[in-house]
Amino acid sequence: MRPVDLAVRLEWVAAAVAAIVFYKMTGVSWWLLALLILAPDLSMLGYLAGPRVGAVAYNALHMLIVPLVLALAGVLFAGPITTAVALIWIAHIAIDRALGYGLKLSTGFQDTHLGRIGRARP
């Protein structure tokens, strides 16, 4: 792995840790985190309709803009559950990026904006 790739992955690890620390500060039960941490991956079901639909569905739940807006709304309107859900979502995205999973391209699940995931083809 190139040093720059390692640095980017470490940044995402830091983002995941920050989201989890802020989650703890909401006072919401850890059960909610355990229940929802993998929820965005349900978007992979879109691949049952083909790679283009799958990429759109997956990317819709793996971009930061919506959970960031949700977190802001939770903070502004004193909604600890809303804030907690947003932080779980942000943590999920950050963990995915730290593991090298990027936004999907319409050519297939393994093709991402970070490069191809999985084993290299011979």
Automatic annotation (TrEMBL):
Transmembrane feature ranges: 6-23, 61-90
Taxonomic superkingdom: Bacteria
Keyword Transmembrane helix applies: yes
Keyword terms: Membrane, Transmembrane, Transmembrane helix
Protein name, UniProt field: DUF4260 family protein
